[in-house]
Amino acid sequence: MTTRNIAVLVGSPRKASLNRKLALALAGIAPEGLRLDIVEITALAFYNDEREAEPDAEWVEFRQKIGAADGVLFITPEYNRSVPALLKNAVDVGSRPYGKSCFAGKPAAVASLSPGAIGGFGANHHLRQSLMCLDVPVLAGPEVYLGNGAALFDEQGGIAADGTRDFLGKFLVTYAKWVETILAAR
Amino acid sequence: MTTRNIAVLVGSPRKASLNRKLALALAGIAPEGLRLDIVEITALAFYNDEREAEPDAEWVEFRQKIGAADGVLFITPEYNRSVPALLKNAVDVGSRPYGKSCFAGKPAAVASLSPGAIGGFGANHHLRQSLMCLDVPVLAGPEVYLGNGAALFDEQGGIAADGTRDFLGKFLVTYAKWVETILAAR
Amino acid sequence: MTTRNIAVLVGSPRKASLNRKLALALAGIAPEGLRLDIVEITALAFYNDEREAEPDAEWVEFRQKIGAADGVLFITPEYNRSVPALLKNAVDVGSRPYGKSCFAGKPAAVASLSPGAIGGFGANHHLRQSLMCLDVPVLAGPEVYLGNGAALFDEQGGIAADGTRDFLGKFLVTYAKWVETILAAR
Amino acid sequence: MTTRNIAVLVGSPRKASLNRKLALALAGIAPEGLRLDIVEITALAFYNDEREAEPDAEWVEFRQKIGAADGVLFITPEYNRSVPALLKNAVDVGSRPYGKSCFAGKPAAVASLSPGAIGGFGANHHLRQSLMCLDVPVLAGPEVYLGNGAALFDEQGGIAADGTRDFLGKFLVTYAKWVETILAAR
């Protein structure tokens, strides 16, 4: 069985980020054949196409890492009912130069997590709108809106509730199938 | 080569609908192996789950037709920056009873057309948000926002401009591949 | 003190609708000077501008009722992450003929309610996108996304929890001020 | 007549930005009593609430400038069908610390401009969703989606077409009235 390498983008810059904890927890319960690794995005300068003649080293490195991955998993908090600027910037940097998006055709999935009840619904769907125009095949369901984020984890950083752990495990299995479906068509 | 039968839903009830003309024009230029047939939606009563015990004959028939199709192509105008009620109702009727959505898993695509410049962008994306929660794998790109709709057709109802006809032909070829990609994974 | 008459549109056709219960509960706790009355929308046929030459009596009556109101309160469930067709149709019918929208300039507010945790966020914002293009000044905050709708009411149809009742009371007071702000500028 | 000072936020970091040109052109045709000044946002670091104990000087200064303004005009390009990270970050920085948003209650308006036909519709509405949750009263209409942005300006940086200049002039007059409507209610 081929191992698929999935780049995980975490939308929060916080050290104590719940979204980062989620990324690590998901990496721990990923099914065989799916390897999740965080690709850092906090060092990326705001995208500006006037700087493409001599692109930042961080931009180039980021694009290479995404380009080398088999798929991309986006894990996002919600800032003001939309995508945090940090994550939107990673999307913008990766999407250019025009016609050379590093995301194009990569099987992707989106999970959102917030402290409140709504679970990042607004961020989740705004992000999907961007990915759609970049020709990224994003897994439709199951939808992952994780609310009440502070209560999600146990002391070891695992998913505390059995039901939620099972749900997220099934989400990853579904995503793994999606990766195979999309890659098989290349 | 297997022929794939695609149900086409047209979001406008108008007799002189530009969206219906687009559906017919697309049917005429579909690649071999992709057959497009309009499934009518104007007779569907507003969805109400209290009526599921004895569902309307029109609801049942609509669900059967969609269920028998290999994929679904949504063609929508924009009413007030969103999906016309007529088309949203077809989505709602087809999505129920809960857990028995006739759309689930069907490879789909969305095209929007409007008289103005924006080409139904608002309707296109609102519709995608609904389809996503119904676990419908919708083709990401190419995006199809057809503006200035009245000038789109020649006198025989074909696509007037060569560039637009080529673009729509490529859209259908890409969609045909998408249908095969999704169906291959079943 | 002048009494402001607010037309309340309920997005669900269900007899046992939680959204209708919410409309009635809000009418019961509205501040002095704000009168809430439901305007029924279930009899409105799907909008079709080809029928404007001889518009349905129901369309005409609906437009007159909205036109006579001082403001409009939209109460919506979420169907498939968007506005139910029933309510979208009322928006579409009221918005036409072009240039004669009965909603134009009316101070409005939106509340959404759903059985799940997310509280109709998707429907709430899709509806706002439509209202914006109709030049309707919609109250921004407080946002009203009522989740877990079945537990919202007591046996008499009132709002069960003190905190929620207080929140909704403040929402209505804020809306009443919004109505005065907008009407003062006429 | 009191002059109202409006902070203008430009969503593009480009030196040759069409959106910046639009901001300057609008400042030149603003009605008497409305003064438009760009508040720069390119120096703002990505928002991170873990840094609020000792906030960046740039964050503090930005919040003060917005806080001192009578209203805010957002001028945005579209990056990947949504708000550029640069502008989203300004919204995020200004919205915090929680409960102390510098935008709260400020009469605002949104204009979007893009090189393509769609005129930044996606960015425009995503931005409105964020502003709504921040309790910002945003002008509904007229909607301003400026497509084909490169052809918009004459050689002196003015609006080239009479019709577009008139439209934008009316937009600013409507916005000036909106500012007075909202400020009158304080």
Topology:
The structure is a homotetramer of 186-residue chains.
Chain A: E1 4-10, H1 18-29, E2 34-38, H2 57-68, E3 71-76, H3 85-94, E4 108-113, H4 121-133, E5 145-146, H5 162-184
Parallel strand pairs in A: 1-2, 1-3, 3-4, 4-5
Structural account:
Four copies of one chain form a homotetramer. Chain A has 186 residues and is of the alpha/beta class. The first copy, chain A, has helices spanning 18-29, 57-68, 85-94, 121-133, 162-184; strands spanning 4-10, 34-38, 71-76, 108-113, 145-146. Chain A has a single domain (4-184), classed as Rossmann fold, CATH 3.40.50. Chain A has five helices and five strands, in the order E-H-E-H-E-H-E-H-E-H. Chain A has a five-stranded parallel β-sheet with strand order 2-1-3-4-5, sandwiched between helices. In chain A, strand 1 (4-10), helix 1 and strand 2 form a beta-alpha-beta unit. Chain A binds chain D through residues 13-16, 42, 46-50, 79-86, 88-89, 91-92, 95, 122, 126, 129-130, 132-134, and chain D through 13-16, 42, 46-50, 79-86, 88-89, 91-92, 95, 122, 126, 129-130, 132-134.
